[in-house]
Specification:
Length: 399
């Protein structure tokens, strides 16, 4: 049932096939840059929505034929990924796998088709939840059946692969050669591929849902590699106050990060930082109303949540948990007071951002975005932030 309407809603079914060649490489589609579609310019597993009367496998094979021109006769089931959002809308993604069929693959809908080795996947902007799907598949027995016997094991998700080790090695060299430490840092970030990793017991999640890139978190991790080479005041200004140690305009920043990472940085900026600022703005409105009305019923957080998302924090958290437990579809019931780590809070905030864009009126979305940007600008001017850090970015334009 939908919390907004109380009505029963249908389940939206989609399906895809992970196609693997004889070298263990996976075929992905480079999606169109058309801004009217979801995840324009991202990479994804071949697949799409099921039509009326189709089974998931029939839908997956049809989509592969339409997107690649290849005919898959039989596909083995891998996993079902169910999801339910706070509005009660239900989604099921069925993933299959099959050997890459013989013949020439030609893009039928996207820009291109390309085979990727496991080590190449983690530098890609991946659509939907495909980063998680591919990580699950590469760690499975199903993938081991495709991998040549003499092939190296794919790097575990989140562990630094060879290219990242090279980026780390080069970082020290470039600084030693006299290049400004921040420009060397940006070069390493541009070359970085791992979406997450664990270093000295700390978990770093740089990429949310394969599309929102927290470049400052990666900058923090890489700056530890340059201990003693960075002026401490400049490091603190960057990481805690969001001030760049060198002057860069928007185009310079885009060039240093690369197009894909810059676009993913904007996703993080608007989807996490501006969303947090918007929540703070509405929270301030609620507090002011309560003071003027001497009104003390209910939780502020739930009132903020209802105004922005049409559901309580508890309902939203449960939906978020279900989204992050796709293999079982069982979400853990959470109350509004349950603890979230900073990494999980960023994921949750980004999920709320996408949820709001999906259901809110476009005029309301634009108005709320302006409100969030105004609060963010105010916080940047004061150099304060509830979570102790501000994102640094050149002046940006909406749209």
């Amino acid at each position: 049932m939908s919390p907004r309407t109380g009505q029963k809603v249908p389940t939206h079914v989609s399906a895809g096939i992970i196609l693997v060649d004889g070298q263990g490489r996976i075929l992905l589609e480079h999606r169109s840059d058309d801004p009217s579609i979801m995840f324009p310019g991202f990479w994804g597993i071949t697949g799409g929505a099921a039509q009326a009367g189709e089974s998931p496998e029939e839908a997956a094979r049809r989509e592969v034929a339409e997107e690649t021109g290849l005919q898959v006769r039989e596909a083995a089931p891998f996993r079902r990924y169910p999801e339910e959002d706070a509005a009660g809308l239900r989604y099921e993604l069925y993933i299959f796998h099959a050997p890459l069929p013989a013949g020439e693959a030609r893009p039928g809908e996207g820009q291109a088709l390309r085979l990727f080795s496991p080590g190449e996947l983690w530098g890609l902007p991946l659509a939907y939840n495909h980063a998680q799907v591919l990580a699950d598949f590469l760690a499975s027995d199903a993938y081991r059946g495709y991998r040549p016997r003499d092939a190296e094991l794919p790097p575990p998700v989140g562990e630094t692969a060879g290219p990242d080790s090279e980026a780390l090695d080069r970082l020290d060299e470039v600084v030693a050669e006299g290049k400004h430490w921040f420009l060397a840092l940006l070069a390493a970030i541009a070359a970085w591929r791992s979406p997450s990793e664990t270093v000295d017991g700390r978990r770093y999640e740089y990429l949310i849902d394969g599309e929102a890139f927290d470049w400052l978190l990666l900058a923090e991790r890489l700056s530890d590699e340059l201990e003693g080479l960075i002026p401490e005041a400049e490091r603190e200004d960057l990481l805690f106050h969001g001030r760049l140690p060198v002057e860069l305009d928007e185009e310079d920043f885009r060039r240093h990060l690369g197009v894909a990472k810059f676009r993913a940085h904007l996703n993080f900026l608007y989807g996490v930082r501006v969303e947090e600022a918007l929540q703070l703005a509405v929270q301030e409105e609620v507090h002011k109303e309560r003071l003027s009305r001497i009104w003390e019923n209910g939780l502020v957080d739930d009132e903020v949540s209802r105004r922005l998302y049409g559901a309580t924090w508890g309902e939203l958290l449960q939906a978020f948990r279900r989204r992050h437990a796709p293999s079982t579809g069982s979400g853990q019931a959470l109350s509004a007071g349950d603890h979230l780590s900073l990494a999980e809070l960023a994921e949750f905030t980004y999920w709320l951002f996408r949820y709001r864009l999906r259901y809110a009126d476009p005029a309301r979305v634009a108005s709320d975005t302006r409100k969030g940007l105004a609060v963010l600008s105010r916080l940047q001017a004061r150099r304060v932030w509830p979570h102790g850090r501000l994102d640094s970015t050149p002046p940006l334009r909406l749209g």
